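check these tokens.
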Amino acid sequence: MYALFHKLQRKTRDESPFAIGSPALIWQIVFFYLPLLLMMVSSIFILGEEGDIQGLSFENFAPLFSNAHLSIIFSSIILALSTALFSLLIAYPLAHFITFKGGRYKTLMLCFLIVPFWTNLLLHVYAWFFVLEREGFLNTLLMHFGLIQEPIRFLNSLFAVMLMMTYYYLPFMVLPIFSSLERFDRRLLEASTDLGASWRTTFRKVMLPLTLPAVRAGFFLVFIPSFGEFIIPELMGGDKRYFVGNVVSQYVLGDETGGMGAAFMVLSCIALVITVMFIYLGFKKVSKMLLKGMK
């Protein structure tokens, strides 16, 4: 009896991590994978008025292989890459400063970084309207210092979209890098300095190779959702530029273009997966080069 109880206790202990994570897994299956599967099915199957499958057809994909649609996918990839790169250029120095110079104010700095994102995204967008509009804070500041003679049209431009995208996704890049730097063994920096290496050499051959996995994680955390971003390009771009999120929403919400919207989503996902694979291989190659430089 004791042996049976001990066996059940050990089995429960071994399976407890899965039990704890199962609600999140169920949530992903029900609210992500299942809708994605239904969208894929609706893109290649002809559905009747009652939702029954009447046949297989790829006619929804035919209009999508045009220059206009392919350029929209390409523009979304460029937008996501630019957002991830700009976020990385800001996030790494910021995470480095918080880690090594923050001292007892680290938690406070992280709170200032995260707390604004507990509010609705629309509030962030409308707050930036007051900053970027013709009579807004930025134009007033530039005119006050004599840098410009008349207000610049910042809103409804690619600049406004990129600025808002970088601002919104910046914490997703900062947090993984900060977590990696927080666990970084500072004795390695002291050893590198004692051996006569400069700060640049230490960063390039010691710190960057060891924190590159965190950079890669942050890059994908920014790149993937940026690819399908809908609200920011819609509001900050002023319907002047179309990206994947805008086109999918217009097609899916249309009366007779739902199947085309599903097909465009599938095509966009394929392009996203291929791009992610190339980026992953690029990071892998950079990691090998950096680790080779450490030897």
About this structure: The mean pLDDT is 83.
